[in-house]
Specification:
mainly beta, six-stranded antiparallel β-sheet, five-stranded antiparallel β-sheet, 1 helix, about 50% strand
């Protein structure tokens, strides 16, 4: 009976939403100025991968999507949100990833809704839950601008039927 009470309290605690605050972090391989509202209970990071290509592959047996980053002539941007795992919970990890690819010689790029397919925008939800997996994003807006040695990006997106903690990304990345 004590286990039932403990399980109920744990589920109630994990189910509560926490107010998010903006944080500044420098956790990627590149010097970046984080502006994304990252939930307090987790960490956000971004990577700019040069001379790469983002392929969206399909797993043969399940039909599930997944990203594959290979050598190429473009830039691949990978944003990660990792939520702190509750202590003593084996399957309590939670993270979200956003991948997309842009030409290396761009100055300005704007994509909206179905045009997001041109940049291979892929959202990943990683948890011990029914929604886990990768999803092609076709609803949202991406604006990327290059100014001197910095890349300014803003992404707002939604994946139908999937709850996400991250849905708006605003970043300035040092492209040097």
């Amino acid at each position: 009976m004590k286990i039932h009470y403990l399980l109920f309290i744990l589920i109630a605690f994990v189910s509560c939403k926490v107010k998010t605050e903006s944080i500044t972090s420098n956790t990627s391989k590149h010097n970046n100025l984080m502006k994304t509202e990252c939930p307090v209970e987790g960490e956000c990071s971004i990577q700019l991968l040069k001379n790469k290509q983002l392929l969206i592959k399909t797993e043969e047996t399940t039909g599930n999507l997944y990203p594959k980053i290979t050598a190429g002539n473009n830039l691949v941007i990978e944003f990660n949100y990792t939520k702190a795992s509750p202590e003593n919970i084996a399957d309590g990890t939670y993270s979200e990833t956003i991948h997309f690819e842009i030409p290396s010689d761009f100055t300005e790029l704007k994509k909206k809704n179905n045009d997001l397919v041109a940049v291979n925008l892929l959202y990943g939800k990683h948890c011990f839950c029914e929604e886990a997996g990768y999803y092609a994003v076709s609803e949202g807006e991406l604006i990327v601008q290059k100014q001197d040695t910095r890349i300014h990006l803003e992404l707002t997106f939604k994946v139908d039927g999937i709850d996400s903690e991250i849905h708006h990304i605003v970043e300035v990345i040092d492209a040097e």
